[in-house]
Design goal:
Number of strands: 3
Number of helices: 7
Radius of gyration: 15 Å
Order of helices and strands: HEHEHHHEHH
Strand order of the largest sheet: 1-2-3
Shape: globular
Structural class: alpha/beta
Amino acid sequence: MLAGHTGVEINLLHLSSAEALEAAARTPARRETTLHHLCLDHDDLDARGGLGGKVNPPIRTREHNEALWAGVADGRIDWVASDHACCLEEHKGDDLWPARPGFGGRRCCIPCCSPRGMCGGGCR
């Protein structure tokens, strides 16, 4: 509402779900998602165990990955960013809520941006 009133452009960052993309697409803004929200999914990370995939906003399911890829393909997402909020898994501890979020996003760069990544192969 404030952006619309003042006429300034806003950036909506780290879109991570189909619902967020749908809401953002109705907003006059530039929209961004991250490599890990395109290429990692909750089920794969959960199967590996540990807290290495704890980030904000959270990694979601493959259905959300697909919705975000569709947003990249059709232009609803304006750019894709890497997010280097490095926190090694061994520094997160064993408890979910006090664990620090983040991980190095560089490992997703090549696999996610390669032709296979663009086809949904990602960095699984």
